[in-house]
Amino acid sequence: MLTLLRDLRKLRRTTALPAPDRGRSLALRHVDCGSCNGCEHELTLASGPTVDIGRYGLGIVASPRHADLLLVTGPVTTRMLDALLIAYEAMPEPRRVAALGNCAIGIGVLGTEDEIVGPVESVLPVDLRIPGCPPQPDEIAAALLALIDGGDA
Amino acid sequence: MSWPLLPGDTYRDVVKAALADGWTFAGLHATADNGRPAVRALLSSPAGELRLESVDASGLTVPTIVDLAAAAGWDEREAHDLYGVGFNGHEPLRPLVDHDVALARFVTSIRGADPYQVAVGPVHAGVIESGHFRFHVVGDLILHVDARLFYKHRGLERAAEGLALADALPVVARACAGCWVTNAVAYAHACEELLGLAPVPELARARTILLELERVWNTLNDIGATCAGAGLAAGNNRFLALTDEARSLNARLTGHRFLFGSVRVGGSDLDLDAQETADAREALARIKRDSSRAWREILFNGSFMDRMPDIGVVDARAALALGVVGPAARAAGVPEDVRTVSPRLAYEGFEPAALRRQSGDVQARLEQRALELLPCLDVLDRLLAGPLRPAPTDATGQESLIGVGRVESPRGATTCIVERDGDRVGRLRLRTGSYANWPAVAYAAANNLLPDFPLINKSFELCYACVDR
Q1: Considering the domain B157-432, what is its CATH architecture?
Q2: What is the pLDDT of residues B137-185, one digit of tens each?
Q3: Which CATH architecture fits A24-150?
Q4: What is the ipTM of this complex?
Q5: What is this structure's pTM?
Q6: For residue B225, what is the nearest residue in chain A, using CA coordinates?
Q7: Do B240 and A44 count as a contact with CB atoms less than 8 A apart?
Q8: What is the dotted CATH code of the domain comprising B5-88?
Q9: Are B122 and B132 in contact (CB under 8 A)?
């Protein structure tokens, strides 16, 4: 166990992201609306030991009721539309929405027209677009940090 | 491959006889045969031979084979929901893909005063794909789980149909990021069978390297996921970092962390010089050293390892009946691995790793993955011994109307069937390892405690995206 923890300590803070000197935070809730699972894999790594968004006050929370920002992935399938709207309705004000990955933004979407509603911005007001197929963990972190720094939430 | 359209009774008899002869069910789909509705069942032999048995569905109802092969359950339900085919004898034929139905039609009814339902999803508490589970429980004990997936259904098969054969690959492969290469190679193999093309050895080598690179990061990810399922943050984080390292290597070699765009029909453009392959071998040796060291630490973590045995059991008998594939099947002592019967790939002499304790529980599935990482890294070390050059296919002169590609994904056998319409995709079916194994997750959860479900689920670590398509 000690070996594991020692190895992990060495791995921490190897990225070129800015030092965690800010006093703000953002609670994130992820909703998958039909992704290929690539955005989920990279988002998981963003909270892993190398990028470690937790050190900037960014954390993934279990319920939209505790979230400041809804992170939506996928091209929004017709079958996920209701669940997405329910999750958004459950969020307290002020609330923000981010489209994570090209599908959510509406770029290069694959599928059949009648199974797909359209980009996130066609159903919810989008405050942040994080492009990429999928966006890399450090790109996700940098985009979220820019939202905290530039936003007036 | 021949596929005379059989009448219903003959179809059942033929499938029954094949199963008795040692063939196993490998997938079923609805299609049109020269404009006539048809259903095709794919069977595979232990030597890797494939055969399709097709039944005339112009009466819109065909006999079920679910009583002969339980693994056909989801396939028949899907064919009913998407193509309107009825399966005589499959009762109740619950909806699978169709969400526009009353809850009572997809939920199993359980009588008695004590059982109650716990509904979870489609939105989950962590960073998890969307899907709905309905647990029927008494106290903490799970009696039964109804899984309702297909929230992520994008209609990818239909989107691919009508496209030129080469153009449909990105559509099929993107069924999921976790198995992009597997899906792409299965599709490419199917198309090459249609077009009468066979890979030259260098092409087989390129694709095998990509498939095993995909298996490396997935295996590291899946070990981490099981740690997360039991709340061992240090183990999860260590394997997440290794997963990141493996994906970074993918990006250095192909320009993409998930290897997107590295496979095409009819050849390979992957060009790695001696320096690049040597660097890759060095990076993989580092991953081998660090993952072995981390795995040893986990093995000696008593409180973690005590959570693993005797829960979520799918033994060999159940695995065979349910058609379980991949590490989950091998952890139960069912030694099936498509890599041993893949003449279009470079797996000469490959033998799947076998555990001493093949108990089919969470511990066996976790240990099977850790064990399988080693032969996977060995294959890569052997294949990356020199530079890799772009490579074509050779014409075999034997074209066909239906092509089947079968490739071992990190979750088990993935099958892609392509029926051609001239130079275009007529009908396409992708049946991934995750699709084959989801019924086993529900089976494994029964008679376990509800709080153990996340761990049982993580020990399979299945994808939703490539099931829903």
Answers
A1: Orthogonal Bundle (1.10)
A2: 999 999 999 999 999 999 999 999 999 999 999 999 999 999 999 999 9
A3: 3-Layer(aba) Sandwich (3.40)
A4: 0.93
A5: 0.94
A6: A44
A7: yes
A8: 3.30.460.80
A9: yes
